[in-house]
Structures are given as C-alpha cells and as structure tokens.
Specification:
globular; single chain; TorD-like_sf; NO3_reductase_chaperone_NarJ; mainly alpha; unfolded protein binding
Length: 246
C-alpha cells in the first residue's frame, strides 16, 4: 500500500530526498482513498510542516521530539519489552519474518524501527499490511496520544495508521490517553544520559548470538531510496460507504 510507504517517509529522519519529493508525496496522499479526507489533509499538513522548513531546522525539531528518551521512541520493542531478554528474541523473530518475505535491510538497521517496519508492510499485500498494523494498534494509539499531548503534527501519522488497521483512531487514542495521563516523563539532561548509557544493540554477532542491550533511536534514522482481519475497515474508494463515517 503506497500510503504506508508515504507515512514511513514522513516518520523517518528528515533528509533532502523528502524535501525534493514534496510534490510527489503530496499527490500520493491526495490520491489515497483508503483513509478519510480529514486524515489525508492532516498528513498533507505534516508534509508541509516538515518540507516548509530549512532541512537542518526540520532535523533538529525531529530529534528534539523523538530522541529525548523512550517516551516517544520509534523502536517498537522498547515499549513492549523494555530491557528484558524477550526483546532480543523478538528482534530475531522479526528479522526472520523480513528474510522470509525477501525484505532486505542494512546491517546497521534495528528491525523494530517503526519507519522500517512500515516500509516492510508497504511491500506486502493489502491484507498482510493491514494485519501487521492491527498487531501493533495499541502501540500506535499510545504514541499517537503522546504526540497529541505534545500538540505535534506527527500525530497525524498514527491516526492514519490506525484507520488503515481498521479501527477508529479517535476511540483507540482516547483509550490510550488514560495511560498517557499516568506517564512519568523526565526529559532532563541527567535522565536522558542515564537512559541511553547502556551498550548499543548488536544482533547476530559473529558467534551467531543476539545481544539484547538498548540503543538510541538516533542510530536508525536514515534516508529512503526508493491475526484477525480488522472488523472496522472502511474503504474510502466506496464513496457511499465512506459517507457518514467521517
């Protein structure tokens, strides 16, 4: 699904390629009928927000949002497994899923980096992509709620992804707000230093073993070159079906 690829680009660390492809990305968002008009407009507004700045300013703002601790980390398993041993195995399992599908990633990439996971889903058929999003809908809602709390336009990505997963974004994010209200957030420099001082993650080392330490999301920002079925799916290609939903 092309729209998932577009959202992957929007959520990734801003690079010149994104700025240069601004018109094409705007057109792709506008032509997507799998999300509501409101969601399309919110994504276009985010694109304008990113591409309307100087590149260094966009990168600095991105880092200040997503690279200040684990609160808004774009590494999925940090939210799911934290520092437990289960995180290392989850990484290995996800890598195996990528390899089985013929989806190659660079050795430096962490497989649970959300823009990378979205790029993988964008390469799959529609049902697999939607199911993959539904599998992480609670995480998408949590991040969406935290971004809404920060009044960040990046929340649009998570609204759209939840809609593509076949669930009601407002309902899911509304439920997540209860957890967000209880979040202890310490983004002082001392807390950040302590949070990221662990050894970086390395997977599939020379001895074939996986290490399950933690790594800062900053190591995963990169330029792009290029199972139940959800029951609330709305296909906006059907105008009569879409009417009244939004």
């Amino acid at each position: 699904m092309e729209i998932i690829k577009v959202i992957s680009l929007l959520l990734d660390y801003p690079e010149r390629q994104l700025m240069d492809a601004r018109v094409e990305l705007d057109d792709a968002i506008g032509q997507c009928l799998f999300i509501s008009p409101q969601q399309r407009q919110a994504l276009r507004d985010l694109l304008q927000h990113i591409a309307g700045q100087e590149l260094l300013d966009a990168q600095s703002l991105y880092l200040s949002l997503f690279n200040r601790g684990r609160h808004l980390s774009l590494l999925m398993f940090e939210h799911v497994h934290g520092e437990s041993r289960d995180r290392g195995q989850a990484m290995v399992d996800l890598l195996a899923e990528y390899e089985q599908a013929g989806f190659a990633i660079a050795a430096k990439e962490l497989p649970d980096y959300i823009p990378l996971y979205l790029e993988y889903l964008a390469s799959r058929d529609q049902l697999t992509a939607r199911t993959g999003l539904a599998d992480i809908q609670h995480l998408l809602a949590l991040l969406g709620a935290r971004l809404e709390e920060s009044e960040s336009p990046y929340a649009a990505c998570f609204h759209a992804l939840l809609q593509l997963a076949g669930v009601d974004p407002a309902e899911q994010i509304g439920q997540a707000r209860e957890k967000v209200a209880e979040d202890p957030v310490d983004d002082s420099l001392e807390a950040l230093d302590a949070e990221w001082e662990e050894e970086a993650v390395t997977f599939m080392q020379g001895d074939g073993q996986a290490s399950c330490g933690l790594s800062s999301p900053a190591g995963n920002f990169r330029a792009r070159e290029e199972v139940a079925v959800p029951v609330h799916w709305v296909d906006f290609t059907d105008a009569s079906n879409a009417a009244g939903k939004f």
